[in-house]
Design a protein that fits this description.
Chain lengths: 319, 300
Amino acid sequence: MKFKALVTENGVTLLEKRFLPALEKTGKACHLCLTRDHAMFLHNLLNGDGIQSIAQFRKDALFHDYRISSNNDDRIAFSLDLSLLLRALRSAVAVAASASSSAVPNRLEIKLVKKLPPNSTQSMPFLTLETRGYKSAVIQDIPISKPFSRAHLAELQTALDSAQDLPQTLLQVPDLNQLLNLVDRMKQVGDVVNVFISKHGDLSVQVSTTLISLGAEFRRLVVIGEQTNAPAEDQNLGAHARSTRSISRGDGQSVQVSVKHFAKSLQCHLARPDCAFYGIAPQGSCLTVIFQFFIPGSRQTDKSISLHCRLPVLDSGSG
Amino acid sequence: MSHWVMEEEESPDVICELENVQGLVDALTAVRWKRQQDALLELSEHGIVLIVEESGCLQAKVYLKRELFIRYDYKARGRPRFGVSLGHFVDCLNAFSVPGQISVIQIQYPGSDMQVLLKSVDSLDASICAEIRTRIPDTIAWDYNFEPAGTNPLTFTVKSAALKEAIEDLEWPGSSIQIILQPDPPSVTLRAEGHGDLQIDFMYYVNSELLVAFQCDHRVSFKYKYKFLKATTSNMPASVIKENRGSKLSIGRGGMLKVQHLVSIAKPCVSHQYVDSVGYQQPGRIAHIEFFVKPEESED
């Protein structure tokens, strides 16, 4: 089992400034899955109750000289602590910055190693970052779990496959920051948020307790997938009446998710996506958030990067 | 169905709109000294008064005059009063305050089920709304009848920041604070005895920048519980300090202490900041906050 690659400058920026800070908010513990073509950061795919997040990079979005081999079809997966990886990456960036005056370009190598830790008789697996300057090299070892067995990998792959089903309707959320601000306030009010999504572009989020209800409604959002026109007679109704009618007509659906999970999904704005879409997966099985990234300077989707989250549904609601 | 909806939309007691939600949040936070607090709201044609009370010893009132609102439609007969949880009210209002953005909020009472309804009215396509259940106030809030102690008022005005700092410093020695006013030399003394002694003097002639006004014709001294005194300044909004405002303290009959702060609820507007800096502002854009603290025991 071997893995070795050089992290590109762009890869360092993507991970250090954008993705790792965002993914760390979802959870520190995560699985890193490497294949011949992709590197994936996966959260909570194997344990059911947390927010699932799947960040996938094509190998050339992060690395060059990418070499991987294993008995499991050249796939390697293990779990690691994202905050350690982020810390190591930050210090590698700092080392590179201080050595940047030298003529030799800095190389940041990432590889899997087995080492004998001090005061131990058994060797342990590490993900190692090696920054090589002109005269010195800085090596940082990040402890990781034992690489997954074939059975364990298959289990991860099954979970990954089942996490790919798309909602029929997706709504583009206009301002993640504003919504995050609101959801932060909602956390004070209650633990469960009711999310309503309709095929004509209405999105509402609401937290209710016996004493209080707090919510926001967005109308006329961009719809991707199945869509219908809003009935004219609903235009002047209040938010609650409209969502009730929409659900009974079957062109709207609502689910309940944890406010904390919802806030975490919004924290993904730290990865600086260009668009975010919310949708309810078929049969109301989960609330899906898909982030879209454009090729810098264009409005074209960057297919080498993808990020989406799945929020477990607490109750299938009235939909 | 439409018939029924029409009936329900009978005009509410009050519908008002406010531009600076953060100012309102600041003013209400100033009287929030613990997590669970019940507040009483009283509506009238002059505006809204919010009252909170604790242990029969401390009461605070926030006066939101109708001039603070850009719209104030009042249709009630009598003066409707209702109870809400102050914490819930502030948490909800907070959701409407978007940093760096002016947001107009509409407050309506009552809703179909006697709730307070809050709604943002900036945009048709994105709106925030909240509903807060109200209670029937169980007792009429105990009236802290503040009467002047004699023919001449006993009062002083001190910079709010200095007052807050002084009270914070007095935390260390003990549980009760003595406030002494004396005319000769004109001064105010805050004194605590406990684990140690600490005395803070504001001398009118020495600290005229801190003690901006002083009126007292005979020496008085009263003791107040530290935790109540602290509640009067502990959540003072940052804007009060930034605008270098003063707080007015008066001692009434029986030693009842009144502490008054002014909180600006003006629309955040850059071009008018020079007006704030000299401490003048349209009086309509100020919320008055009053605390009443009963003394522990009288010494005079």
